[in-house]
Design a protein that fits this description.
By secondary structure, the protein is mainly β. The protein has 11 helices and 53 strands. The protein starts with a helix and ends with a strand. One of its GO terms (molecular function) is mRNA binding.
Amino acid sequence: DSEVSDDISQQQLLPDVKDPNLWTVKCKHGEERATALLLMRKFIAMQYEDQPLQIKSVAAPEGLKGYIYVEAIKQTHVKQAIEGVSNLRLGYWTQKMVPTKEMPDVFKVLKEFDRTRLKSKMWVRLKKGVFKDDLAQIDYIEQSQNQVTLKLIPRIDYSRPRGVNRGNYDKEKRKLHKRPPQKLFDVDAIRAIGGEISTDGDHLVFEGGRYSRKGFLYKNFTLNTICVDGIKPTLSELEKFEEQPEGLDIEMVAESGNKSEKSNRFAPGDNVEVAEGELINLQGKVISVIGSKVTMMPKHEELTDPLEFLAHELRKHFNMGDHVKVIAGRYEGDTGLIVRVEPRMVVLFSDLTMHELKVLSSDLQLCSDVSSGVDSVGKFQFGDLVLVDSQAVGVIVRLEKEYFQVLSMHGKVRLLFILIVKNSSKLKDTRFAVALDAEQNSIQCKDIVKVIEGPHMGQEGEVKHMYRGFPFLHSKKIIENGGMFVVRTRHVVLAGGSRQNVTSSPFAPMSPRIGSPARAGAGGGGGGGFRGRGRGQRDMGIIGQTVRVRQGPYKGHIGVVKDATESTARVELHATCQTINVDRTRLQPTPGGKASTYSRTPMYGSQTPTYGGGRTPMYGSQTPVHEGGSQTPLHDGSRTPRGAGSAWDPTNANTPARPDNFDYDAASPAPYGGATPNPQTPADNNAFTNQTKLLNTWISYFKIFISQATPSPSGYHPTPSPLDYTSPLTPGGGITPSPLGNYGTPGSVGSLMDQGVVTEWQSVDIVVRVKQTHEDSSAAGKIGGGLCNVYIDEIQRTVSVPGNNLEPVIPVKNDKVKVILGEDRETTGELISIDDKDGIVRMDQDKQLKILQLRFLGKIASE
């Protein structure tokens, strides 16, 4: 009872409408206390006169500059008292009355806080000035001078010109400007407006402020300008200061945010649940958002009507496997899959960096897009090579809102702000940089290398960047740093063996000119490309070839190789008619620019014209096809030059006939013919087994015509068969199909199959598509030997097709799939979601979710 009576007595002391009012009067700055004493003496001097002053009191608070308080019942009494006082001339015409409820605050005595409580790294807020209510961190305390040095985010007006540019600035606009927004110190922006920046040790100095290299402002403030009690920084404020939020009470931080901001986080289509009230934990989907009111459709059997809630009564709800986008906070703009759901927090697996991110559920939104990996400025993206400092470079391995994580060339991850990162592309383009590996092989960007030494020994990766002997590699098997890692060139070897090994045909040429390169054709081991055979140090294979210069001062020029060694080549340029010496590594062959290498001693003389004049016409009235009617023998050494032989080829004994590739026919002579120059026996080698004559039209597209040399000891001699799928050839008919492979002669069917006709992905019961000719949505096959048995729904037949003519059908959501590549090959499951090039599969064996590339999956055929 005594406590209640004390409270009542204290309430009686507060002013009410019957008490005199308090008026603010503008005073000369710095003369507040002297003016109050002057009014007191004036009141005493006039109290016994006919018209004494009617004011009750005068107050000049310590913290208020330029004003005094006068207590009086009427405003006329205040004017009578201040009349004739020069210090109050500014406030003679205007006085403002203080509201009754605010009058006690004028005379409230503020208890000075204990200075011993101040510690370094402590969070405070500012009370006044341009930084009012801004969060700051104590950097240094000067007890003797009653000051603290604070670290805070600056507020600089980047729209106001400085220096020589300020003459063009409209002063009237300057008055209308509001408080500048918070932004880290931007050196380039300051220089763009004419500002001058100096250095003081590790700090930058601009307009009296000291700024760190990371963009923070360090400034001295008096103790009475900061607030220490009850400081609760929000999560977004801590992210700006690079502080990790692990030690914070997430629930407290979430509640401290503005409720109006929360309402903006909801969007139609979001899955939400009720966070408080009688319907707590009720789930639903947002229909509309109007201000702070959110309308949702509940997911409940008995609730069929939309319900309306306030924004703070709802929270977002997510399930494992959802694909979401971060719409606010430190990782804004990033996307990923949710792997774990915690109270108020969600752990997602980033699409780009393959890191686990812990984000508030209110900062997420469902989406189907994948982040582009480009920063907010649009200048950088994931995997870019940037300049860390004057001596080192690095690769961006994570993009965040205000800064990057960069993997330096020394293997360390560094945190760099966007404002201080320079793009290394301005210095040098590393896409064409070349280095030597441990076995002296040339390696460059996009090469696959294997690490043989160091912490990453045994790993394989693709070269993304090359800089001063430090290749930056990317491997999908490594999760750290988005799969990026850096090694030294002497610790890696080129995958697949040495590039310097010259691959040549194993046959012994029967021509007297031993150095003659073999016939250049698909599957044959000729002298095409940069790997032609030569005698001594001279490389004859490249001579006469049309090439393009890809590096150096003549970059982009096209010319013909006149002479070449193992390292350099003499090229006659088309444009300038001059001959230059170019490094072989700076040349690349142009399409159709291969040298003619089949012009030695007649290699194809006295052939029976397999595809020439003796053939019954296959294409209407074209008899003979390919000018073959009178050419017997076909390509003899003494014929008149014709066709498109290269005039630049110094190795030509006579100008050869150009191979005539017409529709689906093979060239004459066939490009798969034996390399030994002997008379050939005509043959028709069919890659399909004899199953039905109804497939004549369809199968003819995949017909492979092969001519074999008769005297070759390892040649393939087909036996004529009375069956044939197409128009009969004269002479020679169909052949009995034999198992393909194991025929070592270059250009034979066996060598063709060895080059990858059947690959690893083929598996039974999956839906495939026949390339180029026939698309079928329900073709399931069995594999065996070099062919695949495929059932075609359209013709209700099973046919045999070479594996290289098939490709798997990409599955869609909810399809039954089989893994056709990788460690989980032959396992089955259900595709429940698709994320760009990846799919989420629920495996049949253990019911676990796995993320696999779509190209690793094949659609299982329905029953």
